[in-house]
């Protein structure tokens, strides 16, 4: 399940770039324990139509200098969509 990347603002959004890469671990170092992926922060581009309404043109959105590396654990002990952690520091 892909986590929500919505910023709650129509002006900006996070977008995954590149391929998801496996994170290996376990006793033999060959077990997939999660994935990682780079995200880029984009600013939306808007055009005003003939009726004066703002319309988002996502193909013209601009990437910013902000980058984030997202790590997703393969831990299946929690239900999909459960974003709560027993330890608040996790």
Automatic annotation (TrEMBL):
Gene Ontology molecular-function annotations: DNA binding
Keyword Zinc-finger: no
Keyword ATP-binding: no
PROSITE patterns xrefs: NAC
Keywords carried by this UniProt record: DNA-binding, Nucleus, Transcription, Transcription regulation
InterPro entries (UniProt xref): NAC-dom, NAC_dom_sf
SUPFAM superfamilies hit by this protein: NAC domain
Biological process terms in GO annotation: regulation of DNA-templated transcription
Coiled coil: none
Region (Disordered): 71-90
Top-level taxon in the UniProt lineage: Eukaryota
Start and end residues of each NAC domain: 1-90
Protein name per the record: NAC domain-containing protein
Native source organism of the sequence: Dichanthelium oligosanthes
């Amino acid at each position: 399940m892909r986590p929500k990347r919505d910023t709650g603002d129509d002006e900006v959004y996070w977008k995954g770039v590149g391929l998801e890469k496996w994170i290996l671990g376990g006793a033999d170092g060959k077990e997939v324990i999660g994935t990682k992926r780079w995200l880029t922060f984009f600013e939306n581009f808007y055009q005003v139509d003939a009726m004066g309404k703002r319309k988002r043109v996502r193909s013209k959105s601009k990437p910013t200098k902000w980058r984030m590396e997202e790590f997703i654990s393969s831990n299946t002990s929690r239900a999909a969509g459960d974003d709560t952690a027993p330890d608040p520091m996790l």
